[in-house]
Write a structure and sequence with these properties.
single chain; mainly beta; 6-stranded mixed sheet; globular
């Protein structure tokens, strides 16, 4: 019934690791684009531009859901050293959509 639920994706250019835990490409085709290195890097770059203190380091990206909507959940440290989680929709990184922000919160 579709692809495996978990797939690792490493990006040399951003150091991003994506874990597709619980995401099946058949049930959430909207996130399929973000499972590739180039669109994921564009998404992280859009979040970097949207967050007032930028993104210093990305810990992990989980392609899952946020409030029942497909989302890339990006865990990162900003340039002040604060840790954040950022939920971006499937259009994250596309021209004219920016970070496609669904929500965000400081962790800790």
């Amino acid at each position: 019934m579709g692809s495996p639920a978990t797939k690792a994706l490493a990006s040399e250019s951003t150091g991003v690791t994506s874990n597709r835990a619980g995401v099946d490409a058949d049930s959430s085709p909207a996130l399929g684009r973000l499972s590739s290195q180039t669109p994921l890097a564009a998404c992280v770059d859009a979040i970097r531009r949207a967050h007032p203190l930028g993104v210093a380091a990305v810990e992990v990206v989980d392609l899952a859901s946020f409030e029942t909507s497909p989302a890339a959940l990006v865990f990162f440290t900003d340039n002040s050293g604060a840790r954040w989680i950022w939920a971006s929709g499937p259009d994250c990184g596309l021209a004219g959509r920016g970070a496609d922000t669904l929500g965000n919160a400081k962790i800790g």
